[in-house]
Amino acid sequence: MENLRKLSAVEVSRLITKGEIKVIDALDSVFQRIEESEKEYHCYITLTKEQAYERAELLQKQMDAGEMNGPLAGVPFAVKDNLCTRGIPTTCGSGMLVDFVPGYTCEAVRCLEQAGAILIGKTNMDEFAMGSTTQTSYFGETKNPINPEHVPGGSSGGSAAAVAAEECFFALGTDTGGSVRQPAAFCGQVGLKPTYGTVSRYGLVAYASSMDQIGTFTKNVTDAAYVLEAIASRDPKDATSIKRNDTDFTAALVNDVWGMRIGIPKAYMQEGLEGDIREAVLAAASVLEQNGAVVEWFDLPMTEYAVPTYYTIACAEASSNLERFDGVKYGYRAREDKLHDMYRASRTMGFGTEVKRRIMLGSFVLSSGLYEEYYLKALKVKRLMKQAWKAAFSRYDVILGPVTPAGAPKLSDSLKDPMQLYLSDVYTVTANLLGLPAMSVPCGVDKCGLPIGLHMVADLFQEKKLLRVSYTFCNQERSLS
Amino acid sequence: MTHFIDDSTLEGIELLSKLTLTVEERVQAKKDMNRMLDYIDKLKELDTEGVEPLVHAVLEEKYRTGNEQNGEAFQNVFREDIVSEENFRDNLMQNAPESHEGMLMVPRTVG
Q: How many alpha carbons lie under 13 Å from residue A425 in its C-beta half-sphere?
């Protein structure tokens, strides 16, 4: 039982399918772990133990009858609390939605349940996915299981921590500016954000609709490929969902990068990047080179414009998306006699500081007279960035770098300066702006023992290149040690 | 032109955002927002004359896997106006802060 929870998702499912263990054994292993460690780490907002065990009973019957035998069947998983789950509170880490219980389930979770995986709880997150530390959650902070004095990252910190703490076998998060990749890096997990449009956003509470994507937290690259394969779909309920004919991501789990061209942007490896992280990234590049990849440094223009472009667009879209929280149909309602007062008071009392900050900035850059100067300008810069990156992808299969400029900060002093936090998104936001697939893979630890993440970005629809490179890298890492 | 958020601008922003800040929050908000705006002003360094705004990052792509053209270009996703989900009202009303016979109750809107 102790050892079960250390297995990967695919490994544990295989044991269940072969009949060597029961579905309930997998559940017991994580819930036992949750008993031990959840009080300290606080990865979850809601646990659905009863429903999970009920589901396990049903699933066992199906599996015994040979009706359910996919690679994720019987696997307990967790989901970030901005993904709607029917009958289960979905709070987005906010006081605004403390009592909100959706009457429907998000498409990605539906896909996983159809594949036989078992939802065991909703994980902690920065409020409405706005943040990089999970400390803006209405429900309190999550601790990094690798070192509990440090943040797990954000905004999907709960999901990353739950996998790292072995409180589930894999988890879903969402990535709008790096919110899957950064916590994956901080917690030593594999984080994958697919091409925009690959995973349906139906049931995902919107933050920035042109950039939001559901992503995966897994213990290894193999699991990432299997989970992504399960949740990728053309969903008519999401108008931005794309029909893809190449979602057999597991076919990319190949130990071979011979001839692949890997580019390292010089701009990403300069001052401001912690020494340990630089060394780890360079060491990783060297491993890939030893395996036949061609690694080159190159000049990637426009990198200094990524963060301001991202925050302009993200805040603008957020200000629009969060208009719906006005106390009328759902969520917190303040008692006021006049309608507009009710809107204002509900929002003022329901939202936290960071959310208000971004809504206000967003309203400002969209306001008449300023729209062209700020929002439209950012969209034009986005076009220029796309041109720069398209040129880069004509030369390289994968662009390599660090996920973050520094290791996970301490819980006690991470929120002192919001600007500092925003700047630390420098490596991740471009993938969101341009809809590109990107991954974070563990590539070592720093002097304090905190995990370091290796960041890889590929061109649109090229997840298989990312999977190939990361699979090869992780295999080499294992054989080296 | 570098904009500067003063008290009256902030009042306008609060109205647009439907938020009410406390006196202390206003002091901090002006500081934070002005800092952000200074940073965002960096985009003004770029000449974007004649550049088309890029709204949808994936819209213009016909995508390929390997060497073949695969899949379909982004296209109009309108569907026929046929009701596919019925009797959803009770489900949706479950989260209503105040309701009456299947209708949302709110403070008086007219008069």
A: 29
- Per-residue confidence band for A477, with pLDDT thresholds at 50, 70 and 90: low
Q: Is the pLDDT of residue B103 over 70?
A: yes
CA dihedral A226, A104, A127, A352 (to 10 degrees): 180
Write the DSSP string, B47-111. Answer: --TTPPP---TTTTPPPEETTEE-S---------------S-HHHHHTT-SSEETTEE--S----
- Determine, for residues B52 and A383 on separate chains, whether the beta-carbon distance falls below 8 Å: yes
Contacts of A175 in chain B (CB under 8 A): none
User: Encoding tokens for residue B68?
Assistant: 């073949």
What's the mean pLDDT when you consider all of chain A? 96
Q: Test A339 with B46 for CB contact under 8 angstroms.
A: no
- Asked if the Cβ–Cβ distance from A380 to B107 is below 8 Å, we say no
Do residues A262 and A435 touch, judged by C-beta distance below 8 A? no
Give the pLDDT mean for A36-52. 98
Q: Does the CB of B87 have a partner CB in chain A at under 8 Å?
A: no
Cα–Cα distance, A348 to A344 (Å, whole number): 6
Query: Is residue A93 within 8 Å of residue B82, measured between CB atoms?
Result: no
In the 8-state DSSP scheme, what is residue A26?
A: H
* Closest chain A residue to B30, measured at CA: A357
- The tokens describing A329, both together, are 């149909």
Give A88's DSSP letter.
B
Residue with tokens 């349906």: A200
**Interface predicted TM-score (ipTM):** 0.91
Q: What is the pLDDT of residue B74?
A: 54
> Does A319 score more than 90 pLDDT?
yes
Chain B residue with CA closest to A239: the answer is B77
Give the residue from chain B lying closest to A237, CA to CA. B77
pLDDT band at A61 (very low <50, low <70, confident <90, very high): very high
For position B60, what pLDDT does the model report?
62
SS3 at position A45: strand
List pLDDT tens digits, range A332-368: 999 999 999 999 999 999 999 999 999 999 999 999 8
Radius of gyration of chain B (CA): 24
Contacts of A309 in chain B (CB under 8 A): 43
